[in-house]
Design goal:
7-stranded mixed β-sheet, alpha+beta, globular, single chain
């Protein structure tokens, strides 16, 4: 699910990723959150964490800012240093 420059990961989708994400520095003050799919070389690059997505008092998921092309390249290079077979996805299906 995404809208404009944001991606929202619904709570029910979080279970498809490993519990602990990778954090990749994209600038001196910002990090990108990268979620790995278990038992694979596939990763979902969520982007910069913005906070919780809420509907009133109910939490719907987590909000992330989409990355620029330059930031995507930084993240891709960093993840591929750790996992040479990495396949990165920048959109949530």
């Amino acid at each position: 699910m995404s809208s404009g420059a944001e991606i929202i990961i619904p709570l029910d989708k979080k279970g498809q990723f490993q519990k602990t994400p990778l954090y990749i520095a994209i600038s001196p003050t910002d990090v990108a959150t990268v979620w790995k799919f278990p038992n694979s070389h596939a990763y979902f690059v969520a982007g910069k964490y913005l906070g919780l997505a809420k509907d009133g008092e109910n939490v719907k998921g987590q909000r992330y800012r989409k990355l620029t092309e330059h930031e995507k390249n930084i993240v891709s290079d960093a993840v591929k240093l750790q996992d040479k077979e990495a396949v990165l996805k920048f959109e949530l299906e």
